[in-house]
Amino acid sequence: MKRLFTAMGLALLMVAGGLAAPAWAQDGEVAEAPQQADEKLATQVKELLAGFEYVPTRADWEKLGPQAAGVLRQIAADPATRATTRARAISSLGYFPEPDTESFLSAVLSGEDQPSLLRRKALRALAFGFGEKALPQLTPYLSNDDKRLRESAIRAVGLLKVDAARDALQARLPQEPSSYLQ
After folding, report:
1. What's the predicted TM-score (pTM) here?
2. 25-84: per-residue pLDDT in tens?
3. Residue 18's pLDDT band (boundaries 50, 70, 90)?
4. How many CA atoms lie within 13 A of 67 on its CB side?
5. Residue 159: CB partners within 8 Å, gap ≥ 6?
6. What's the mean pLDDT in 98-105?
7. What's the half-sphere exposure (Cβ side, CA atoms, 13 Å) at 104?
8. Which of 84-88, 147-151, 165-169, 178-182 has the lowest mean pLDDT?
């Protein structure tokens, strides 16, 4: 009887603690439970973003796969997360040029209540990830009242290296009030 209660208690503890038996893959190998896989991915993403001097590369993000973009969006959207971590998450989204990422970056950029740092990172991530396609989203910020946002827009448009981007920068040049940004 004592063994029965011990076994039942252990089973309950395993289920309640998320340690239930793993799912089985089709070929007979053990597959991670979805929640465990999500937690593992979130931990890996956070570790990449936590580096003090190391900036994650395309290869780093490719190792984690396209699901990492969702984790990056969650981190970037969380106001309880440090601004620098959110900014690194937004910058990293440039490696995931997919519709959900474009929508997210556009929302950050257009959110005037968003911190300027995040909006500046969104400009660069759009340019980096979506190239010439992002130009219509970027050019309005060439004349933004926030000088630092304008500077980031200039740099983002400059990354595109296409005639339309050069034309947009040249058209804005006579109106730019900052001699530094000219």
Report:
1. 0.75
2. 344 443 333 455 589 999 999 999 998 888 899 999 999 999 999 999 999 999 999 999
3. very low
4. 11
5. 124, 127, 128
6. 96
7. 27
8. 178-182
- Classify the C-alpha dihedral 165-90-76-117 as positive or negative: negative
DSSP-derived secondary structure for the chain: -HHHHHHHHHHHHHHHTT-PPPEEPTTS-EE--HHHHHHHHHHHHHHHHT-SS----HHHHHHH-TTHHHHHHHHHH-TTS-HHHHHHHHHHGGG--SHHHHHHHHHHHH-TTS-HHHHHHHHHHHHHHHGGGGHHHHGGGGG-S-HHHHHHHHHHHHHT-SHHHHHHHHHHGGG---TTT-
N-terminal to C-terminal alpha carbon distance within the chain: 83
| Tokens 């029965």 -> residue | 4
* Cβ atoms < 10 Å from Cβ of 123: 28
> 123 and 156 in contact (C-beta within 8 Å)?
yes
Closest CA to 62 of 99, 92, 107: 92
